[in-house]
Specification:
By secondary structure, the protein is an alpha/beta fold. It has one domain (3-275): Dihydropteroate synthase-like (TIM Barrel), CATH 3.20.20.20. The chain is 40% helix and 17% strand. Strand 6 (115-118), helix 4 (127-134) and strand 7 (137-141) form a beta-alpha-beta unit. Helix 3 packs parallel to helix 4 and helix 8 (238-250) packs parallel to helix 9 (261-274). The structure holds ligand 7PM. Ligand 7PM binds at residues 22, 30, 63-65, 98, 117, 119, 139, 141, 187, 189-191, 217, 219, 223, 257.
Length: 277
């Protein structure tokens, strides 16, 4: 369970938790105000995250923020491909592409991406077959509803059971499409159709997802439930985000998706030092 097959003879060791650094190439991202929209500064930002210890760089060109403008595949490709190409030429750190669109998946993998990070868990038409044919790793994430409306009134019988059953179903669908289990990451999708209480319950019982037999990715960094619980704006959520990343790893996550790589790596090194193995 502690190695991810990236396809084409490549692997990623997950014996120690890996930090995935976020690079948004969008004008409407809520976390960085689109500061990294121009390709050169996005690459610079990504290389800074690598120097801080990121083990994966996640490149995204479409904001999943509720109410964000939809982006065409052509626009998304124009935003992310120059960044992925330059990044893959400059580092061996695996690059993931945050997209739901098959066209973007194909272009990103051709440019060097080795992980498809899809918040829709390959539910769009042709996404499963495309990911299977590309032969790279995938992250299957749980989301209840659609980004535009998912936070309106999320409801679950039991959030952990519901998320676990959804992910089990997507793993089966992905496997049936020809994606080997060794290439899958699973993700409960913190903040995607969840109340603050749902997010806390998922984090508390994260280890229950380990029964699915695949490494868990947790994305908690700067999320709005932190703001709701602590009354903090997005630019003041660093300390809570680091605490949440640490808790996620302690509760079974193998990958944490974060904006602030350096502080998170430092905290995880401390966790490693106290952990008996
Ligand atoms: C608005 C709402 C802007 C949500 C940005 C977001 C995850 C992800 C994102 C996650 C995986 C954010 C999110 N979150 N991919 N992409 N897991 N696998 O806070 O939790 O960055 S976008």
């Amino acid at each position: 369970m502690s190695v991810l097959d990236l396809g084409h003879g490549r692997t990623l060791d997950l014996t120690h938790a890996v930090v995935m650094g976020v690079v948004n190439v969008t004008p409407d991202s809520f976390s960085d105000g689109g500061r990294f929209t121009d390709p050169a500064s996005a690459v610079e930002q990504a290389l800074r995250l690598v120097a801080e210890g990121a083990g994966i760089i996640d490149v995204g060109g479409e904001s999943t923020r509720p109410g964000a403008q939809p982006v065409s595949a052509g626009d998304e490709i124009a935003r992310v491909i120059p960044v992925i190409e330059a990044l893959c030429a400059a580092t061996t750190v695996p690059v993931s592409i945050d997209t739901s669109k098959p066209e973007v998946m194909r272009a990103a993998v051709a440019a060097g991406a080795t992980i498809i990070n899809d918040v829709r868990a390959l539910r769009d038409p042709d996404a499963l077959d495309t990911a299977a044919a590309l032969g790279v790793a995938v992250c299957l994430m749980h989301m209840q509803g659609e980004p535009r409306t998912m936070q309106d009134n999320p409801e679950y019988i039991d959030v952990v059971t519901d998320v676990r059953d959804f992910l089990a179903g997507r793993m089966l669908a992905a496997e049936a499409a020809g994606i080997p289990r060794d290439r899958m990451l699973i993700d409960p999708g913190f903040g995607f159709g969840k109340t603050p209480e749902h997010n806390l319950e998922l984090l508390r019982r994260l280890a229950a997802l380990r029964i699915l037999g695949r490494p868990i990715l947790a994305g908690l960094s700067r999320k709005s439930f932190i703001g709701k619980l602590l009354g903090l704006p997005v630019d003041r959520r660093l300390h809570a985000s680091v605490a949440l990343a640490l808790l996620a790893v302690q509760n079974g996550a193998s990958v944490v998706r974060v904006h602030d790589v350096g502080p998170t790596v430092e905290a995880l090194h401390m966790l490693d030092a106290v952990t008996i193995r």
